[in-house]
Structure formats: C-alpha cells, structure tokens
Design brief:
28% strand, 195 residues, two-stranded antiparallel sheet
Length: 195
C-alpha cells in the first residue's frame, strides 16, 4: 500500500515536521471560515502540527482535529490543548456532523483509486450545504516525492469532474505556485465545494 512509506515518514519525522517554519495559509483559512456561521463545527482532516486548527479555534470555531499519524497527533495536541483523533481518511464514519471540513494538503496522500470513496465519506460527514476546503499538488500521474511520500497529483479538470460526479456543488478550483516541505517549487490546486 503506498501510504505505508508516507505514514512512516510522518511517524519518524513528526517533531521536525510539526515545528518547521511554515506560513499559515491565512488567506485560504479566512476564505473558508467566511463561508461558515460563527462557531461552526469543523472537522480537520490531517491536522499535522496543529497550526491551522489553533487558528480556527482562536477565531471561535469548534474544531475536531484528526491525523493519520500518532506522533503528529501528539505534536498537535501539545499546541492546541485538545485531543486529536488518530484515523485514516477511509475510517471517517460521521454522518451530517460538521458544517465544514478543512483538509489542507492532506487528501493529496489518498490513492487515486480511493479518492472518490473518501470524498463520499467527507460529503456524508458534512451537514447539508456544508463546506469543504482541500488542497492538492497538481500533476498528471500519481507518484512519490524525494522523502518517499505518496501523492495522487491530480489535475484541476480531473478533480472538478470527480467532484461533480460525486454530487458536490458550487465547485471552485484555483491554482497557484508555491512550495512544500521538500523545498521544491509546487503547483497547488485549491478546492472549495459545498455538499
């Protein structure tokens, strides 16, 4: 399974990864939060070191953080002071429980063949008209980075078609250039959709 090497990376490098110098994706966070009612319930998928969750909590939102790595979850708990559920995306079993799902640079690790099913789980976890934010590294074919982490590397058109087929609405997709933990230039795709 491609995620074994990815999971191993985050378990072995959790402290370094969580404490790295990282700019908060404030513009994207603020756009996401602006689409929700004050105090809305947010599920964070792949909370990493907890910085995004800490920001959303500081803005008065009710955040439920999750991560696939036990060690990263510990790092996030230390930062935000609340429990982090350790789970894989495929284990999401909530039903109409959240107003928003924040999945910043996390669903990009889901194997391409499993992505429609994971999107279906996320959609079910949202209340009607619930909002999803997700970001991906753009590409043409799935593969691995220099650290051995798996990425699904979708195209914007492919993601748009997948989401439309899955019943999502108000699909907004943006692309921009940036970087990542590996220090390499990265083309990012940001998705905002409603259930």
């Amino acid at each position: 399974m491609p995620l074994d090497r990815t999971s191993a990376f985050y378990e072995e490098n959790a402290a370094t990864y969580a404490k790295r110098a990282r700019s908060l994706p404030k513009q994207q966070l603020d756009a996401f939060l602006a689409g929700l009612a004050p105090g809305a319930a947010i599920l964070e998928l792949g909370c990493g070191g907890g910085q995004d969750g800490a920001y959303m909590l500081s803005q008065g939102f009710d955040v439920t953080p999750t991560d696939g790595s036990t060690e990263l979850a510990r790092q996030a708990e230390a930062l935000i002071g609340r429990p982090v559920r350790v789970m894989q995306f495929q284990e999401l079993d909530a039903d109409s429980a959240f107003d928003g799902v924040w999945a910043h640079a996390s669903l990009l690790h889901v194997p391409r063949l499993e992505l429609p099913n994971v999107f279906a789980h996320v959609r079910r976890a949202l209340r009607p008209s619930g909002l999803l934010h997700a970001s991906f590294k753009a590409g043409d074919a799935e593969g691995y980075d220099g650290f051995g982490r798996y990425y699904n590397y979708p195209s914007a058109d492919g993601l748009s078609a997948l989401l439309a087929k899955g019943g999502w609405r108000d699909i907004t997709i943006e692309e921009n250039d940036g970087g990542g933990y590996d220090g390499k230039p990265t083309r990012w795709i940001t998705v905002m959709v409603r259930r």
